[in-house]
Amino acid sequence: MARDDRAGGRVRAFVAVDLEPPVRGEIAATTEELRAAGGDVRWAQAENLHVTLKFLGSVAAERLTAVRAALERVAADAAPFELTVKGLGTFPSAERARVVWVGFVAGRLGALAQRVDAELAAVGFPLEGRPFTPHVTIGRVRGARGWSRVLAAMAPHGDKVFGCSGVADIVLYRSDLHPQGARYTALDRFGLAGADGVRTSSMR
C-alpha cells in the first residue's frame, strides 16, 4: 500500500485535474443508470472522478520534491480554462470493452498534459509513448455477463453533454489500492497562474 511521502517509502502517484461538483453529479447520475443494467463492471464513485494527465506509478518518496517542482513550473505558465465534458464510450471497442469513459470536447487540456509530460520527463519520468486521449474512467469491465444490457443503456448518452468544468489547478494524487477499489488522496494542488504570473501551491 502506498504511504504519505512524509512517512518515507514509495507512493503510487498520478497527476490529474478535478471536475467541478455539478459535472461530477451529472456523470454520477448517468453511471447509476448504467449500474442498474446489471453488467459485470466495477463502476467509479463520484468522489473519484478526475482526468488523469500523467500516471507516475510507484514513486520513491524522495522524488516527490522534484515532481512538485516540475508541476509548479507548469502551473506558473498555464492559465485557468474551461472543459466541455461530452460523450460516452468504451476502450478499445464496444465488443471488447475494458473501460467505460466520459469524454471531452477538444481544447486546452491536451496542451496542459503535454507540458506536464515534458516537465516530468526533465526530472526522470519517461515520456508518454502514445497520444493523450482525455477521458474520465467511469467503469472497468470485468466480464461479458450483462454487457449487452450495459451497451443498450449507454446508447442514449453517446453524445450527452455533461456540462462545463473550470480547470484552476493541477493535482498530485496518491492512489492507495484496497479490495473495494482505489482510494485517491490529494498530496498537493498547484494553481494555474499563467494569466497573472502569480504562482500558487497549497496543501490540502
Briefly, what is this?
The protein is α+β, with helices and mostly antiparallel strands and 204 residues long. 25% of the residues lie in helices and 38% in strands. The chain has one domain (10-195): Cyclic Phosphodiesterase, Chain: A, CATH 3.90.1140.10.
Summary keywords:
single chain, 204 residues, alpha+beta, Cyclic Phosphodiesterase, Chain: A, five-stranded antiparallel β-sheet, 25% helix, globular, disordered N terminus
Can you walk me through this structure?
The chain has about 200 residues and is of the alpha+beta class. The chain has a single domain (about 10-195), classed as Cyclic phosphodiesterase (Cyclic Phosphodiesterase, Chain: A, Alpha-Beta Complex), CATH 3.90.1140. The protein has helices at about 20-35, 65-75, 110-120, 145-155, and strands at about 10-20, 40-45, 50-60, 80-90, 100-105, 135-140, 160-165, 170-180, 180-190, 200. Strands 3-1-8-9-10 form a five-stranded antiparallel sheet, with helices on one face. Strands 2-6-5-4-7 form a five-stranded antiparallel sheet, with helices on one face. Helix 2 packs antiparallel against helix 3 (about 110-120). Residues about 1-5 and about 195-204 have low confidence and may be disordered.
Overall shape:
globular
- C-alpha Rg, in Å? 17 Å
Summed up, the helix count is 4
- Helical content (DSSP H or I, runs of 4+): 10-25%
The residue ranges in which pLDDT falls below 50 over 5 or more consecutive positions are 1-7, 196-204
**Which architecture would the CATH scheme give at its second level?**
Alpha-Beta Complex
**How many domain regions?**
1
Q: Write the H/E string, N to C.
A: EHEEHEEHEHEEEE
| Biggest sheet descriptor | 5 strands, antiparallel
Distance between the termini: 21 Å
Average pLDDT metric: 90
Q: Structural class of the helices, strands and pairings?
A: alpha+beta
Q: How large is the share of residues in beta strands?
A: 35-45%
Which CATH class?
Alpha Beta
Query: Which fold name fills CATH's third level, the topology?
Result: Cyclic Phosphodiesterase, Chain: A
The strand count comes to: 10
Q: CATH homologous superfamily?
A: Cyclic phosphodiesterase
Strand order of the largest sheet: 3-1-8-9-10
